[in-house]
Design goal:
The protein is mainly α and 425 residues long. The protein is 78% helix and 1% strand. It is built from 15 helices and 2 strands. The relative contact order is 0.18.
Length: 425
């Protein structure tokens, strides 16, 4: 099938459609908080690997491999979507991959290291590749003057979703990560899949693709590769975008590494119990709501780059304090700061990038945004896992701080453009 008609919708998004878009964030963070942060990482370390000395390295490799695969896919997928193939088709495909693989994790038991690694790799590929298309809806559902707050509201909705997920999952996690409670821990994987399925549905039902083909043919694949090739040839025209992506590559590597290994650090270095870890992440997610929503408004008012710089300096402070702390109480306080830093840095990164990219290539450039974010996550977790397994977790924390500092210095070269007056088209 090669014939197709381009459909370009120009009606502005309604509040209900914006809310439906944000509900996807509500649902996908259920996967993120259970599978990548609180539940599965410790389950994998203690139950699946039996606390093998190389468990941190195996977990870091699983995450890094998944990010490499998603990184390689992202730019081409974004270019294909911009050619008219439609964002929702791809978003549905990768969402289904994530949810199906998450359900598969329920059947992973002690000693099943390879299946446990393969399924989390597939699940995270689906999660991360889907974000290319989800993020690319932002320039379509609002104007440049509101990028910061709408992006922040989306992340805030996600953090609310993670809090609800933690509350529902807590009765199953409070028994700890001993073999006797393994079945209860695995139940939380099904809870994450159910939440993702339920709250992802509205974006597919209510939010339109503004540029799509009525019939999808295989010709969009070579079109996607040609668009990537042409963009790379002309990339010198987008120097400011390149400066941002280089900075983003470095600092988001540090942020992802902190998130991926935070529960393992709390469990191993601070000897926190399962209930204490859930409480810690509830604190992080609660303050992240404040960080994403309020700092999104501040970014629209005072400038996205200024707020992003502040967020990264806050992250740098957190890593130094984490290296020094031996106290659970201090670690809880760090959770408050980490939530604010996470919410503000993630939302302002997305809104600043929306501001500096060419509108006609928005999904393609969000593919590059996704590529750099995911490619960076190949380095950090693998590096942290190697240093932690062969030296010490606290030494590994210092490497994360170094990445943050480099990212802050690289961000200096990024120029934030004046807000353009636009209509939604």
């Amino acid at each position: 099938m090669t014939g197709s008609t381009i459909v370009h919708e120009t009606l502005p998004a309604t509040r209900g459609q914006i809310f439906s878009w944000s509900l996807f964030d509500f649902g996908n963070t259920a996967f993120y908080v259970i599978i990548l942060t609180v539940g599965y990482p410790i389950y994998f370390r203690t139950i699946v690997t039996g606390s093998d000395p190389q468990a941190d390295l195996l977990w870091g490799l699983s995450f890094s491999i998944s990010m490499l695969c998603a990184a390689l896919l992202s730019p081409v997928l974004g270019a294909i979507a911009d050619s008219g193939a439609g964002k929702k088709r791809f978003l549905f495909l990768f969402t289904a991959l994530c949810i199906g693989s998450t359900i598969g994790l329920f059947f992973v038991e002690a000693g099943m290291i390879i299946p446990g690694m393969l399924l989390v790799i597939l699940a995270n590929i689906g999660f991360e590749a889907g974000l290319v298309f989800y993020d690319a809806f932002l320039p379509e559902i609002t104007t440049e003057r509101s990028y910061g707050r709408v992006s922040g509201y989306g992340f805030a909705m996600g953090y609310i979703g993670s809090l609800v997920t933690l509350a529902v999952s807590f009765p199953f996690l409070q028994g700890g990560f001993d073999p006797e409670n393994a079945a209860n821990v695995r139940t939380t994987f099904l809870i994450a899949a159910a939440f993702f399925t339920l709250f992802a549905a509205p974006i597919f039902l209510l939010v339109p693709d503004r540029l799509r083909r009525e019939r999808l043919g295989f010709e969009v694949i070579p079109i996607g590769f040609r668009r990537i090739r042409n963009t790379m040839k002309d990339f010198s025209r987008y120097r400011n975008v390149g400066n941002f992506l280089l900075s983003y590559f470095v600092y988001i590597d540090a942020v992802n590494t902190i998130i991926v290994f935070s529960t393992i650090f709390a469990y191993e270095s601070l000897k926190m119990e399962a209930a204490e870890i859930v409480l810690f992440f509830a604190i992080v997610q609660t303050t992240a709501i404040l960080g994403s929503s309020s700092f999104g408004i501040l970014a629209d008012k005072f400038g996205h780059k200024k707020i992003l710089n502040f967020s990264l300096l806050l992250w740098l402070t957190i890593t130094v304090m984490a290296y020094l702390t031996e106290s659970k109480t201090v670690f809880y306080l760090l959770g408050i700061l980490a939530g604010v830093a996470m919410g503000s840095s993630q939302s302002t990164s997305r809104s600043l990038f929306s501001l500096i990219i060419p509108v006609e290539k928005k999904t393609e450039f969000f593919g590059f945004y996704s590529f750099f974010g995911k490619a960076s996550a190949i380095v950090g977790p693998a590096m942290f896992g190697f240093i932690s397994s062969n030296f010490d977790q606290r030494v590994a924390i210092l490497s994360v701080g170094a990445l943050l500092l480099v990212g802050i210095l690289l961000l200096i070269r990024v120029q934030e453009p004046a807000v353009r007056v636009q209509t939604l088209e």
